[in-house]
Specification:
Blueprint: H1 15-25, H2 34-45, H3 52-64, E1 90-94, E2 102-108, E3 114-120, E4 122-125, E5 128-132, E6 135-141, E7 144-146, H4 155-181
Antiparallel strand pairs: 1-2, 2-3, 3-4, 3-7, 5-6
Helix pairs in contact: 2-3
Length: about 180
């Protein structure tokens, strides 16, 4: 078997059949958002999710966590991870854009920092304006390096800060499970 080979495929179904299958698996189908439904159907057709319900849940999570769609609550652990970045490998991220072929190049450095670059048409660094904390620092930067975060005052403070994020995220997970159980 080849790496990334799909071993099982979804049963092909039309958009209306997908809707019927999704409706039968949901308690309140009226709450289905049209853009999430469309994304769910696309995920199902691409065999990313194996059932309409699973694809809708994935699409909803994806839409909830898109950078400019709203949710700005911090998460931690394995929640909302879209891609794992291996150390030392440059990864190409492509923008979901109909008009232009563009995106980011990202590399996790050995020292824990990141090299990042904007690309346009070819996967090589392309000049772009860079803002830091809302202020322009360069109009024609090609590669931006973010260094490893500075150490916090103490390991204890770091632990408390991250535990708060975990507790808040766990509370949200519990609320969601309770709502689904009702």
């Amino acid at each position: 078997m080849r790496l990334f080979e799909i071993t099982s495929k979804n049963t092909p179904m039309s958009r209306s059949e997908f809707g019927k299958a999704l409706r039968s698996s949901m308690r309140n189908f009226r709450d289905v958002e049209p853009d999430v439904f469309q994304k769910a159907y696309e995920l199902y057709l691409k065999n990313v999710a194996m059932t309409p319900a699973e694809s809708y849940e994935m699409a909803k999570n994806h839409m909830d966590n898109m950078a400019f769609e709203g949710k700005e609550e911090p998460t931690s652990g394995d929640r909302n991870i879209a891609l794992y970045l291996p150390r030392g490998d440059m990864k190409v991220l492509k923008a979901e854009d109909k008009d232009y072929d563009r995106g980011l190049l990202v590399k996790l450095l050995d020292d824990g920092g990141y090299d990042m670059a904007y690309w346009y048409e070819k996967h090589v660094p392309f000049e772009v304006e860079v803002l830091v904390d809302g202020k322009s620092v360069s109009k024609d930067a090609k590669i931006v390096t973010m260094k490893f975060h500075p150490e916090l005052a103490s390991v204890e403070n770091k632990g408390v800060k991250f535990k708060m994020y975990d507790i808040e995220a766990d509370m949200e997970d519990l609320k969601d499970k309770i709502d689904r159980a009702k």
